[in-house]
Amino acid sequence: MLTEIKGLNEECGVFGIWGHEKAAEITYYGLHALQHRGQEGAGVVTSDGETLKVHKGLGLVNDVFKQAEFSDLSGHAAVGHVRYPTQGDGGIDNVQPLLFRSQTGSMALAHNGNIMNAYKLRGELEREGSILQTTSDTEVLAHLIKRNRKTSTVESMKDALQEIIGAYAFAILKEDKMYVALDPRGLRPLSIGKLGDAYVVSSETCAFDIIGATFEREVLPGELITISDDGIETTRFALREPRNMCAMEYVYFSRPDSDLNHVNVHASRKRMGIELAKESPVEADVVTGVPDSSISAAIGYAEQSGIPYELGLIKNRYVGRTFIQPSQELREQGVKMKLSPVRGIVDGKRVVMIDDSIVRGTTSKRIVRMLKEAGAKEVHVRIASPPIENPCYYGIDISTREELIAANNSVDEICDLIGADSVAYLSTDGLENAIVKDKTINQGICNACFTGNYPVSEDKQASISYTRS
Ligand code: AMP
Ligand code: SF4
């Protein structure tokens, strides 16, 4: 059995650049493009070849960085990080990149993912005398690298990476080099680009477009890349395994303009909508998507079904910056912060409401009620991914089975619970067809939260598919 991992469970964004005189500013723009991957905190560490400098804080990238900060962040190399709000420990100590200084050199780590055996490794490290400063799983890797006695950093890193189990994309900065590593199954996205002569690395390619960089290639599963003034060198720390890119990156997390493992996110979502319309058609007057992540799938559903796509719901784009939330009393009176129905579009209509996923079911319930209050005659909910029945151990905040509506209810029961006229989900085959265009190019996906087939388990690193009994 996989053990339930408690504690930090985060989806984050990493960015790095080597060989650019404005490394800190470029990283700021890169993090801006990755802001959707984490809003709790942001940080940048730079290297000028001799020392590492850090600036980080809680909040959005724009809140953490002001113009003055950049004059202190000199250097030709940088790594940056945006952090997702966590359920467990938060606070500035866990905001990344984590920076460790020592007489033999400093090291900054930016990580997206989850080290499943972090708790066990922490115990071992503490018994050997390490004093860990944060509750972040990322710190474990730093200690594993540091305690390794190999003469070269790359060899120490390879040993350390072989000890950790889970899903991870790392960008690590030392004074004279940057290192980039991806877990043996490639669960998390990570790409390399070029900006002039500089190398850039990012969780998502949308950050390359914003800074004017060109995509070079994906970081491969089990690959450790070293970037320095001598160029780029690659080695492996794990055998080549089939890739299992996280399906939820396509379904919900990544930006539509990003390409993950050679597949554009918007295009894959549109195909999810097309597959969904083929599998679960319904007679209706309009198709609408829950902004922003479901718009692409709604366009696909409308195209395939021939039912017109309409803007039936509007998102207030400033909601993330609002500190005064309505009280329960005001909420009950109908004060909504995030989404509003477009009455003129849905009034008197049979509406197909496309959402990318249902986790706990609270969002769908609220939106169905909202559309009905705005006059919708019928609301047919179509979900552009299969039912989420299993928790994620690989860094996405899909918490415990008890909270997952689909783990505890049939589709008919979900329909009753959210007050819809009908509910249908995309099949797992439909999801795979929408994402995997060519098995020789983008290979497989992880769909464990839908199927329970975990590609990596805590006791067997990236070797066989783990099937939950
Ligand atoms: P819920 O109300 O819990 O069912 O939330 C479902 C909505 O949250 C979906 O419409 C998604 O857009 C979004 N979502 C899906 N997965 C996650 C996640 N892991 N963390 C936060 N939001 C998510
Ligand atoms: Fe992504 Fe789900 Fe796999 Fe987690 S279990 S990595 S959310 S597909």
From TrEMBL:
<dbReference type="InterPro" id="IPR005854">
    <property type="entry name" value="PurF"/>
</dbReference>
<keyword id="KW-0315">Glutamine amidotransferase</keyword>
<dbReference type="InterPro" id="IPR029055">
    <property type="entry name" value="Ntn_hydrolases_N"/>
</dbReference>
<feature type="binding site">
    <location>
        <position position="356"/>
    </location>
    <ligand>
        <name>Mg(2+)</name>
    </ligand>
</feature>
<feature type="binding site">
    <location>
        <position position="246"/>
    </location>
    <ligand>
        <name>[4Fe-4S] cluster</name>
    </ligand>
</feature>
<keyword id="KW-0004">4Fe-4S</keyword>
<dbReference type="GO" id="GO:0004044">
    <property type="term" value="F:amidophosphoribosyltransferase activity"/>
</dbReference>
<keyword id="KW-0658">Purine biosynthesis</keyword>
<keyword id="KW-0408">Iron</keyword>
<keyword id="KW-0460">Magnesium</keyword>
<dbReference type="InterPro" id="IPR035584">
    <property type="entry name" value="PurF_N"/>
</dbReference>
<feature type="domain" description="Glutamine amidotransferase type-2">
    <location>
        <begin position="12"/>
        <end position="230"/>
    </location>
</feature>
<dbReference type="InterPro" id="IPR017932">
    <property type="entry name" value="GATase_2_dom"/>
</dbReference>
<dbReference type="InterPro" id="IPR029057">
    <property type="entry name" value="PRTase-like"/>
</dbReference>
<feature type="binding site">
    <location>
        <position position="446"/>
    </location>
    <ligand>
        <name>[4Fe-4S] cluster</name>
    </ligand>
</feature>
<dbReference type="Pfam" id="PF13537">
    <property type="entry name" value="GATase_7"/>
</dbReference>
<keyword id="KW-0479">Metal-binding</keyword>
<feature type="active site" description="Nucleophile">
    <location>
        <position position="12"/>
    </location>
</feature>
<dbReference type="InterPro" id="IPR000836">
    <property type="entry name" value="PRTase_dom"/>
</dbReference>
<keyword id="KW-0411">Iron-sulfur</keyword>
<feature type="binding site">
    <location>
        <position position="449"/>
    </location>
    <ligand>
        <name>[4Fe-4S] cluster</name>
    </ligand>
</feature>
<comment type="function">
    <text>Catalyzes the formation of phosphoribosylamine from phosphoribosylpyrophosphate (PRPP) and glutamine.</text>
</comment>
<feature type="binding site">
    <location>
        <position position="293"/>
    </location>
    <ligand>
        <name>Mg(2+)</name>
    </ligand>
</feature>
<comment type="pathway">
    <text>Purine metabolism; IMP biosynthesis via de novo pathway; N(1)-(5-phospho-D-ribosyl)glycinamide from 5-phospho-alpha-D-ribose 1-diphosphate: step 1/2.</text>
</comment>
<comment type="similarity">
    <text>In the C-terminal section; belongs to the purine/pyrimidine phosphoribosyltransferase family.</text>
</comment>
<feature type="binding site">
    <location>
        <position position="355"/>
    </location>
    <ligand>
        <name>Mg(2+)</name>
    </ligand>
</feature>
<keyword id="KW-0808">Transferase</keyword>
<dbReference type="Pfam" id="PF00156">
    <property type="entry name" value="Pribosyltran"/>
</dbReference>
<feature type="binding site">
    <location>
        <position position="392"/>
    </location>
    <ligand>
        <name>[4Fe-4S] cluster</name>
    </ligand>
</feature>
<keyword id="KW-0328">Glycosyltransferase</keyword>
<protein>
    <recommendedName>
        <fullName>Amidophosphoribosyltransferase</fullName>
        <ecNumber>2.4.2.14</ecNumber>
    </recommendedName>
</protein>
